[in-house]
């Protein structure tokens, strides 16, 4: 099999597959590095807060490198644009997150909405007499222009919609349908204490919680692709090797057989049939023709059939 692998055709194919594997390895390393940088940057948010316009532009996605960055935004809250997100567990207790829309002035004079998780409250404090979450129990938004400092987070995946100002995720696609657009793609988790609310802890979005499984999954995929390229080369060499062995075996078997094929079995004695001319001649029909001619006693010939008078001594 080694001789088959060392053929020029397979050596060229090996070089191509190795190059493809190296590219996959570089892409896997890049994805792993992105995941590692995102984890380390979120675990140590020591950088000073930057202005929202310097950290995220309207329409840009919140990448894993930006998620968790300290950001400061300035704008005004709309009291009518506020939802509650129950079902969270913070500091060992059931919590409800309060999310409000901050209207941020754009360079062109317009406004864009930035969802702000202003803080959280115990689930018992946000539950009404009927046992359901009551948005009216949440603290009201502050009036006037305000400066909010928090951690930039990516939108969570949207599963359920917004019903009665209650949602299950902090998902900007749902909030766009509820509040309107334009809207930033991420949200701000406020770290400063708000009235009646506890400050948000770091990494409350599913995107930035713990390991970044998305980039880790991409890295694993590139590793699998690289291994698959090498497997294709090995499979091609093995197939060619097995085909060569089969051809050699067929030629060997053909050389061991006679040129005219296998020998036919020899003839066997059989009784004459009626269609045989020798069997259908006069001798076959005349019994006397088959009987021997009697010897004449007066015949001078020897019993051997040789005439004594004609024999001479030489």
Could you walk me through the main structural features you see in this protein, from its secondary elements to its overall organization?
The chain is of the alpha/beta class and 314 residues long. It folds into two domains: 2-43 and 216-241; 50-201, no CATH class. It contains seven helices and six strands; from the N terminus they run H-H-E-H-E-E-E-E-H-E-H-H-H. It has a five-stranded mixed beta barrel with strand order 2-3-4-6-5. The longest helix has 43 residues, at 213-255.
How many distinct helices? 7
Strand content: 15-25%
- Into which percent range does the helicity of residues fall? 25-40%
Tell me the distance between the termini.
Answer: 83 Å
What is the number of strand segments? Answer: 6
Poorly predicted ranges (pLDDT <50, ≥5 residues)?
Answer: 204-210, 274-280, 310-314
Largest sheet strand order: 2-3-4-6-5
Secondary-structure blueprint:
Blueprint: H1 2-5, H2 8-43, E1 50-51, H3 52-55, E2 70-90, E3 93-105, E4 111-122, E5 145-154, H4 172-179, E6 186-190, H5 213-255, H6 282-285, H7 287-290
Parallel strand pairs: 1-2, 4-6
Antiparallel strand pairs: 2-3, 2-5, 3-4, 5-6
Helix pairs in contact: 2-5
Brief descriptors of the model:
7 helices; 314 residues; five-stranded mixed beta barrel; alpha/beta; 33% helix
Sum this structure up briefly.
This protein is α/β, with parallel strands linked by helices and 314 residues long. The protein has 2 domains: 2-43 and 216-241; 50-201, no CATH class. The protein has helices at 2-5, 8-43, 52-55, 172-179, 213-255, 282-285, 287-290; strands at residues 50-51, 70-90, 93-105, 111-122, 145-154, 186-190.
């Amino acid at each position: 099999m080694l001789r088959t692998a060392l053929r020029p055709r397979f050596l060229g194919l090996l070089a191509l597959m190795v190059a493809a594997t190296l590219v996959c390895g570089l892409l896997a390393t890049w994805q792993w590095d992105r995941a590692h940088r995102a984890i380390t940057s979120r675990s140590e948010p020591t950088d000073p807060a930057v202005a929202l316009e310097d950290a995220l532009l309207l329409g840009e996605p919140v990448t894993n490198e930006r998620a968790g960055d300290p950001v400061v935004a300035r704008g005004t809250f709309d009291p009518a644009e506020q939802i509650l997100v129950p079902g969270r567990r913070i500091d060992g207790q059931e919590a409800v997150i309060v999310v409000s829309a901050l209207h941020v002035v754009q360079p062109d004079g317009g406004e864009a909405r930035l969802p702000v998780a202003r803080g959280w409250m115990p689930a018992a404090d946000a539950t009404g007499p009927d046992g359901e979450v009551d948005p009216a129990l949440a603290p009201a938004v502050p009036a006037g222009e305000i400066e909010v400092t928090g951690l930039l987070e990516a939108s969570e995946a949207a599963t359920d919609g917004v019903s009665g100002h209650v949602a299950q995720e902090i998902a900007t696609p749902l909030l766009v349908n509820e509040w309107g657009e334009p809207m930033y793609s991420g949200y701000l988790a406020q770290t400063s204490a708000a009235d009646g609310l506890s400050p948000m802890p770091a990494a409350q979005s599913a995107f930035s919680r713990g390991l970044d499984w998305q980039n880790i999954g991409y890295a694993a995929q590139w590793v699998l692709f690289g291994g698959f390229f090498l497997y294709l080369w090995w499979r091609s060499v093995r197939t060619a090797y097995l085909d060569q062995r089969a051809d050699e075996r067929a030629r060997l078997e053909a050389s061991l057989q006679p040129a005219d094929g296998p020998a036919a079995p020899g003839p066997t004695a059989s009784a004459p049939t009626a269609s045989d001319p020798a069997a259908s001649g006069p001798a076959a029909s005349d019994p006397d023709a088959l009987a021997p001619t009697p010897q004449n006693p007066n015949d001078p010939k020897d019993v051997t059939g040789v005439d004594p008078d004609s024999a001479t001594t030489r």
